[in-house]
TrEMBL record:
Ligand binding ([4Fe-4S] cluster): C281, C284, C316, E323
Domain (IspG TIM-barrel) ranges: 23-262
Pathways involved: Isoprenoid biosynthesis; isopentenyl diphosphate biosynthesis via DXP pathway; isopentenyl diphosphate from 1-deoxy-D-xylulose 5-phosphate: step 5/6
Protein family (similarity comment): Belongs to the IspG family.
Protein name: 4-hydroxy-3-methylbut-2-en-1-yl diphosphate synthase (flavodoxin)
Pfam (any one): GcpE_C
Domain of life: Bacteria
GO biological process: isopentenyl diphosphate biosynthetic process, methylerythritol 4-phosphate pathway; terpenoid biosynthetic process
Organism (species): Krasilnikoviella flava
Lineage of the species this protein comes from: Bacteria, Bacillati, Actinomycetota, Actinomycetes, Micrococcales
Keyword vocabulary terms for this entry: 4Fe-4S, Iron, Iron-sulfur, Isoprene biosynthesis, Metal-binding, Oxidoreductase
Cofactor note: Binds 1 [4Fe-4S] cluster.
Annotated function: Converts 2C-methyl-D-erythritol 2,4-cyclodiphosphate (ME-2,4cPP) into 1-hydroxy-2-methyl-2-(E)-butenyl 4-diphosphate.
Gene symbol of the encoding locus: ispG
Length: 387
């Protein structure tokens, strides 16, 4: 049996750029900005008035790795549901308020961790800043100033003709100044647009104007496939410059999918510890095994893995042995057989029909010896099902 050196402390994985120096604020128990880990947010899709359904969805999001959740507060009935939701949620709850300043006060009183305000939509917002700042400050509640291309102030739309990056930034800086005039600094900012190019430019400009923590989002990014690509592209462009303190992927799909995509983006950039990573080849004319099916079955069988295990699934002997050796665990297939590698050494050769089962067995054995990533709180071993 090969000696395996697992569970040893490893140095931090390299990132593409140092993090931009932003001010740190609290969203309940989660710090945002400064040296705090980049957090993942999502938003419930249940009616907020349906407290049980909303709490159920929050529990699912929490299990998927969501750090902070936002709930919509369009009516007084939704505002009335906030105390129960804020009390029972395991993760900080942000009330999302667009039109009614009085709901901001209700959300603060309800024990929400933060409130998102959209100054472009909240009528008479400017008159109420002082009161909002005082109430938030007294309650230890932070805010997000959420500027959105779809609800930009009319004055700025007239000035710029459309919601350009410059217009979004001018709006955000103006709204920030209204709070800062009252000595209130516990807020983050977002400047969302559905076009990743405009969005990236807006955040780049905003990042130069102050040290506010920034909440990244491509708004109305679209259905899962398109939205994932738009978000990954835009977030990647910004995070690779160190810009961004918390992220929300917006998909026309169940919110758990948003959390999964956000997690993958952060893991890909080494901004969150990597968990299960399947390194599988695209297959080509040399493949001697059905790589797609093999990779899918291994992925499905290892779903729920919480340790940073890298599993290589390769179709032939060209790159197979090399990649399999680099991974914690791997298979290189050929001639109806699979060579199983653990930490660079061939530990066994099995018939093709046994590859998936053997990889899963080996993965479980390795996972049991590995500590779960920090802050995870879960055991390393996955709940495994053979796909
Ligand atoms: S590992 Fe083999 S089958 Fe897979 S892409 Fe490379 S050459 Fe093709």
């Amino acid at each position: 049996m090969t000696a395996i050196n697992l569970g040893m402390p490893t140095p931090p994985a390299p990132t593409l750029a140092p993090r931009r120096k932003s001010r740190k604020i609290q969203v309940g128990k989660v710090a945002v900005g400064g040296d705090a880990p980049i957090s993942i947010q999502s938003m419930t899709t249940t009616p907020t008035t349906d407290i049980n359904a909303t709490l159920q969805q929050i529990a699912e999001l929490t299990a998927a790795g969501c750090d902070i959740v936002r709930v919509a507060v369009p009516t007084i009935d939704d505002a009335d549901a906030l105390p129960a939701i804020a009390k029972k949620s395991q993760i900080p709850v942000i009330a999302d308020i667009h039109f009614q300043p009085k709901y901001v006060f209700a959300a603060i009183d309800a024990g929400c961790a933060a409130v998102r305000v959209n100054p472009g939509n909240i009528r008479k917002f400017d008159d109420q800043v002082k009161e909002i700042a005082r109430a938030a400050s007294d309650a230890g509640v932070s805010l997000r100033i959420g500027v959105n291309a779809g609800s930009l102030d009319k004055r700025l739309l007239e000035k710029y003709g459309k919601p350009t990056a410059e217009a979004l930034v001018e709006s955000a800086v103006w709204e920030a100044s209204l709070f800062e005039e009252h000595g209130f600094h516990d807020f983050k900012i977002s400047v969302k647009h559905n076009d990743p190019v405009v969005m990236v430019r807006a955040y780049e400009l905003l990042a130069q104007r102050g040290d506010w923590p920034l909440h990244l989002g491509v708004t109305e990014a679209g259905p899962a496939f398109q939205g994932t690509i738009k978000s990954a592209t835009a977030f990647g462009a910004l995070l690779s410059q160190g810009i961004g303190d918390t992220i929300r992927v917006s998909l026309s799909a169940p919110p758990v999918e948003e959390v999964k995509v956000g997690t993958q983006i952060l893991q890909a950039l080494n901004l969150r510890p990597r968990k299960l990573e399947i390194v599988s080849c695209p297959s080509c004319g040399r493949a001697q095994v059905d790589v797609y099916t093999l990779a899918e079955k291994v992925t499905a069988g290892l779903e729920g893995m919480t340790v940073p295990l890298r599993v290589a699934v390769m179709g032939c002997v060209v790159n197979g042995p090399g990649e399999a050796r680099e991974a914690d665990l791997g298979v290189a297939s050929g001639n109806g057989k699979g060579q199983i590698f653990v930490k660079g050494e061939v530990v066994k050769t099995v018939p093709e029909a046994m590859i998936v089962e053997t990889l899963i067995e080996e993965a479980m054995r390795i996972a049991e010896t590995m500590p779960a990533p920090e802050n995870d709180g879960q055991a390393g071993a996955p709940v495994v099902s053979v796909g």
